[in-house]
Amino acid sequence: MERQETPVLFLSTADEPDAITEAWARLEEIVGSLQGRKFFGVFGPPDGAYRVCLQVRGDDDAALSGLQSGSIPGGHYLSTTVQGEPPEIYSHIPTRYAELNQVADHDTTRPSIEFYRRRDEIDLLVPVKAR
User: Gene3D superfamilies attached here (predicted)?
Assistant: First the structure.
């Protein structure tokens, strides 16, 4: 699949389960209502950190909310979808990424993406080299 570059606001944390859980809770605290927002988890290059992200809307103000601004790189991605109820759904993410990485011509210059489509549906995307 092809993705366009996506402007986001984010918090950066260690790529470890407890730190990620805390960062998502902090983002939810800052943002307030999650309705109508698009959320992403992004990890890998450039620094190996995990970023909890929300897509930028016109009324967002990063300075007031304490979030950093950046973007999720566009390009070609191999994807799969994980479905299930939280928190169990999260335990399936590492295995499904491993499966994608076995068949992907991985582009190590771009991060992998988790797109939180709904609370019970997550798209996992691994960047692949253009053919």
Answer: Regulatory factor, effector binding domain
